[in-house]
Design a protein that fits this description.
The complex is a heterodimer.
Chain A: H1 13-27, H2 39-46, H3 50-62, E1 66-69, E2 73-76, H4 81-105, H5 110-124
Antiparallel strand pairs in A: 1-2
Chain B: E1 3-14, E2 18-23, E3 26-28, E4 32-36, H1 43-50, E5 58-63, E6 66-68, H2 72-76, E7 79-82, H3 94-102, H4 110-119, H5 133-146, E8 151-155, H6 163-180, E9 183-188, H7 191-195, E10 200-205, E11 208-214, H8 215-221, E12 222-228, E13 240-246, E14 254-259, H9 267-271, E15 275-281, H10 284-296
Parallel strand pairs in B: 4-9, 4-10, 7-8, 8-9
Antiparallel strand pairs in B: 1-2, 1-3, 1-5, 5-6, 10-11, 12-14, 12-15, 13-14
Classes of the chains: A mainly alpha, B alpha/beta.
């Protein structure tokens, strides 16, 4: 879940890591009480600065997604369903914004994207 | 915040052509500091000055609170160094080389050195002179880490290593930093490699420090803009215009590279009758290249 972070992206690395956790909590992949990887473990695996992982976990703690227990690790908190729903909506919005920005770069208008999306959704329907 | 490495007015000359000029480095304690510069810019010379291996013409050098070169021996006991070219006795075995190195460092961690041998899949009975380039790279990092230093000075530690070995070496380094909160001063021309984990950047060119700033500031500061219908003279810009070139043929208009960009500055283009089509964030490598280019030719604006 953390493997596709992109150091060359303009989105700061700590934000990318925090964002992965938010989505996992929102979708229920991370359950309340579950522990996040240790700072040392995740920093080593991703080859990022340990301070970056700490910054991500602190941001998540301030937002109420996790709880950092001194010396014992970082745990997912109980997050209300409507908050999780809101997080899913926000994530969807972010993805659409990125898509539209990409499209604009190639000179593809919003109409073309909207119709492609409708077509794709129709073909996906059972 | 204190600095693990600090230099002031540092001057060094080698022959008549090369000079380190008024170098003022500030490496914050606990940072991972990427020391960037093209080949021949003076990175290795600077590192050798920091370690007391070269004598400056003048200036002050302080490393882990010690004056260099006067107190270099006290500094070296707390500093791990991976040189650009390894200095090992080729006839020793890995085990002998390790014990030889350990004798200089009271903080040497035998248990961890043994664990690193396993992690790096190094055979302790192998002759140092027979090691492959990858094995040598891993062994040099092992020697620096197992002395449990508070500061690591790494001179192109992954230069010439394949991606798999590079990853192993960097993972061991980061694991140590996470555990020990050590400071790392790492020189490299593999810019993208530093982008993942450095939180400070210093850029050296021709013996001069071009820039020294936190990584996020470095990456946010410089943008590439695609501008349609630009005026022939840009007038007063709210940002610093570093360069201006015709588009690449695929896209119309011009490509501007600017420093000090903020989103509200897009209004400037309405005022001059131009259209701002795109704002591209530059990654570390592109930012580095643009920074050097404009440092070398400060007033050059192509049209």
């Amino acid at each position: 879940m953390f493997d596709e972070i992109d150091p060359r992206s303009p989105t700061p690395l700590y934000d990318q890591i925090a964002s992965r956790v938010r989505v996992a909590v929102a979708s229920g992949d991370f359950r309340p009480g579950e522990s996040l990887p240790s700072v040392r473990g995740l920093a080593t695996r991703l080859r990022v600065n340990p301070a970056t992982v700490v910054q991500a976990y602190r941001a998540l703690e301030q937002e109420g997604f996790v709880e950092m227990r001194q010396g014992a690790g970082t745990y997912v908190r109980e997050v209300a369903e409507e908050r999780r729903g809101r997080e899913r909506d926000e994530q969807a919005l972010r993805m659409v914004r990125d898509l539209l920005a990409d499209a604009a770069r190639f000179g593809i208008g919003a109409d073309a994207i909207a119709s492609a999306l409708r077509q794709e959704l129709r073909s996906e329907a059972p | 915040m204190s600095n693990a490495i600090e230099t002031r007015d540092l001057v060094y000359r080698a022959g008549t052509t090369f000079e380190i000029t008024d170098l003022a480095l500030n490496v914050p304690t606990g940072s991972i500091y990427g020391f960037l510069g093209p080949n021949g810019s003076g990175k290795t010379t600077t590192i050798r000055l920091l370690l007391g291996l070269l004598r400056p013409v003048r200036g002050r050098i302080q490393v882990v609170g010690r004056q260099v070169p006067r107190e270099a021996h006290l500094m070296l006991a707390r500093t791990g160094y991976v040189p650009e070219r390894p200095h090992l006795y080729p006839t020793l075995t890995i085990d002998e080389a390790m014990r030889f190195h350990a004798a200089f460092y009271p903080t040497w961690d035998t248990k961890w050195a043994d664990e690193l041998l396993v992690t790096f899949r190094l055979d302790r009975s192998r002759r140092v002179g027979k090691m492959s380039k990858g094995e040598t790279g891993k062994f040099m990092m092992l020697l620096a880490l197992a002395q449990r230093p508070e500061l690591l000075i790494l001179d192109e530690p992954t230069d010439g290593l394949d991606p798999v070995v590079r990853r192993e070496v960097l993972m061991a380094l980061i694991e140590y930093v996470a555990e020990r909160q050590a400071t790392v001063f790492i020189s490299s021309h593999l810019v993208h490699e530093l982008e993942r984990f450095c939180n400070w950047v210093g850029v050296l060119d021709n013996g001069r420090l071009v820039a020294e700033l936190p990584m996020h500031a470095f990456k946010n500061g410089i943008k590439r803009l695609r501008v349609h219908h630009p005026p022939s003279t840009p007038g007063d810009t709210p940002f610093v215009l570093l360069s201006r070139e015709a588009g690449d043929g695929l896209s119309a208009g011009e490509v501007w590279v600017v420093r000090g960009w903020q989103a509200t500055m897009s209004q400037y283009f309405d005022g001059i009758g131009a259209q701002l089509r795109e704002v591209v964030d530059l990654d570390l490598e592109e930012g580095f290249v643009e920074m050097l280019r404009t440092f070398r030719h400060p007033v050059e604006v192509h049209s």
